[in-house]
Structure to design on (288 residues):
């Protein structure tokens, strides 16, 4: 199976260079890598790899950047793997993905097991991520677990099942929950599976992310928009919104140094006020 890796990036040139070097260690090299950025200033220009690397430029925003790369990939590949620029895959990651899709023809999406996730903490350094991979040892569980959706930092899709589906560009900038929206729709075409034997570390680098107010707005507006769209259950959307709203409220008095809790709470309340007036507009964050 031919595998392409797509990396959408913004303001993380050093991370992209390190990820490309890490992909050189794969036991199954990708057939191609596509880097998608707003312009050339966001990606390294002098990377020499054992696989072809394409660079495509266009709009700013994760869904739009992923869509541009999908258009470039076309129908030339069997598997499309999306990595965040701050995700470190285990050396056998792509080999495991290829075997999974070969052995399971009804699988539409495969997402791996994240050994450590810096997105839920202050973040991890590259060295800490590599160390976590070294300490993990061999995988012991190989059975896939069905999921509502995949985790966007590492997700692989059977290209034949995409059939024109694209990421929703009404979820702008960081595109919060765009991975859920996209991959949950693929459950109508095949199974969406988390496979524990396919592993990696998500560093959760904080640079390049949207500010607190914008992110807080998305925490409310995006789940409601997706529930209305019908790609996630309303129970999922309400639970996600409630969890984040309560966390921002509870921690706004003593916020973590790496999270703008007060900004997020203001964004939450602004979105709720809009929803109360019947306005569900994820792209409003572009006006904030």
């Amino acid at each position: 199976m031919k595998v392409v890796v797509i990396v959408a990036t913004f303001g993380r040139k050093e991370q992209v260079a390190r990820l490309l070097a890490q992909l050189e260690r794969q036991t199954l090299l990708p057939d191609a890598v596509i880097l998608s950025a707003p312009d050339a200033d966001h990606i390294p220009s002098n990377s020499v790899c054992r696989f072809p690397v394409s660079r495509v430029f266009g709009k700013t925003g994760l869904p739009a950047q992923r869509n541009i790369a999908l258009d470039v990939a076309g129908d030339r590949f069997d598997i499309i793997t999306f990595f965040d620029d701050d995700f470190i895959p285990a050396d056998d990651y792509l080999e495991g993905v290829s075997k999974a899709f070969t052995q399971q023809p009804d699988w539409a999406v495969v997402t791996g097991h994240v050994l450590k996730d810096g997105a839920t903490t202050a973040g991890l350094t590259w060295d800490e991520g590599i160390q976590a991979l070294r300490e993990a040892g061999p995988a012991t569980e190989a059975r896939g677990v069905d999921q509502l959706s995949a985790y966007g930092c590492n997700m692989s899709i059977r290209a034949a099942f995409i059939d024109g589906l694209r990421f929703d560009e009404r979820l702008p900038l960081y595109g919060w929950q765009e991975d859920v929206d996209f991959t949950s729709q693929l459950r109508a075409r095949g199974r969406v599976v988390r496979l524990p034997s396919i592993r990696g570390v998500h560093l959760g680098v904080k640079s390049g992310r949207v500010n607190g107010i914008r992110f807080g707005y998305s925490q409310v507006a995006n789940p409601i928009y997706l529930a209305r769209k019908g790609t996630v259950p309303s129970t999922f959307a309400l639970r996600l919104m409630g969890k984040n709203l309560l966390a921002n409220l509870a921690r706004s008095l003593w916020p973590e140094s790496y999270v703008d809790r007060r900004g997020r709470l203001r964004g939450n309340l602004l979105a709720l006020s809009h929803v109360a007036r019947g306005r569900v507009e994820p792209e409003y964050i572009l006006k904030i």
About this structure: The first helix runs from residue 13 to 23. The mean pLDDT is 93.
